[in-house]
Amino acid sequence: MRIEVVELPSAPDSVRPTMKAVGVGGAGCNIVARSSLDKMAICRGSDGLHSSVQDRFVLKESEVKVCRTSQPHILASHDLPWMGRMLRFIDDPQVLFLFSGMGGETGSYVSPVLMAGTRRTFNISSVSLPFSAEGPERKASAKEGLDRLKRESDIMIVYANDALIKLAPNLPLSKAFSVMDHVMTSIPEDLASQLTVESLPVIKKEFYGLEMRLGIGYGLGFNKERLAVEEALDSPWFPSKQFRPSTGLMVIAQNEPDIDTVKGCLEYLDSMLEMDRLMVTVRKDPELDQRVRVSLMLGYGFK
Fold first, then answer.
1. Is a pLDDT exceeding 60 seen at residue 49?
2. Are residues 163 and 272 in the same domain?
3. Which of 22, 38, 69, 207 is the most exposed place for a label (fewest CB within 10 A)?
4. Is residue 83 part of a domain?
5. Residue 218 domain boundaries
C-alpha cells in the first residue's frame, strides 16, 4: 500500500478516559443535544431556549463581552469569579468535546476562552461556519473566533454551512441543520467508543495544529467497502483535490467487524486518495445490521 497504516491503540481492557460534551452558544446547544455523551451547555439566556439540554451554565452579557475584548489565554490566567464557576461546571474531564457555531458572540468568543481554561484536558472542537449569505460581519467574527479556537484546541474539526446546499439540496433548512447536527456528533461518538488513556497522546501528536475535515459513507451489499469509502470521500467538507491531506483517521464500524471488510476499505481508500499516513480503528455498532460505515477524518495544514 502507498499509505502507511497505523492502528489506533484501543484494547478492550484498556483504561477509558472520562469524557464530556459541551455545546457553546445557540448552535452548540442544539448540536450537543443529539449527543449520547455526558452533555452540558454554556450559553446566554436566549441562546439555549430551544435546546433540550438541561445541564446549563448561563453567562451574563457583560461576561460574553469580556471574552470578546481579551485574549483567551489572558482571561484563563486571571482569577475571574465567573471563569472559575464555568470551569467547575465543566468539572475537569480527561476529554472534552466542544460543539459550537462560529459567527455569533457566544460561539466565537466564549469557546476559545473555555478551551484555554481547560488546557490540561484533551480538547476536541467541532465547529460550523456561517453561510456566505449571512454577511461579511458574521463571516469576520467567525474567522476571528476560529483563529482563536485553533490555538486552544488539540483537534479542530470544521464544517462550513454552505456545504449543506450540496449535502441536502432538497431539504428544508431546519431538516438540513438536523443532518448537519447528526454528522457533527458522529465522529465524537465514534471516538468516544475507541479512545483510551494510552491513545490520547498518540492522537494529539498525529493531528495537533491541523484543521480536520470529515466525511461519512455507508455501504451495503457486494461492494459495500467501495461504496462506503466513495461516499465518505465525496464529503462536501473536504477541500478540492489540490489540497493534499497530511494525515487522517478512519473509523470502520460494522455490526460484527471482520478483517476482510477492513482490508477492503483500506485498499479502496489507498487507490482513491493520495496521503502518507492513516490511523485506523474498528468499532462494533449493532444498529448497522448488514451495512458498513466509514468515518474519515482528514487533516490539512492550511496556511
1. no
2. no
3. 69
4. yes
5. 210-300
Q: Do 255 and 289 touch, CB atoms closer than 8 A? A: yes
H helix runs in the chain, sequence order:
25-32, 61-69, 72-77, 81-90, 105, 111-117, 136-152, 164-167, 173-194, 199-207, 224-233, 259-272
C-alpha cell at 176: 438540513
CATH number for the domain that contains residue 101: 3.40.50.1440
User: Are the beta carbons of 147 and 138 closer than 8 angstroms?
Assistant: no
255-268 pLDDT, tens digit per residue, is 998 999 999 999 99
Is 287 among the domain residues? yes
Residue 93 belongs to a domain? yes
Dist. CA 175–CA 171, nearest whole Å: 6
Q: Do 149 and 250 fall into the same domain?
A: no
pTM: 0.92
To the nearest 10°, the Cα dihedral for 124, 98, 165, 298? 0
Asked if 170 and 295 sit in the same domain, the reply is no
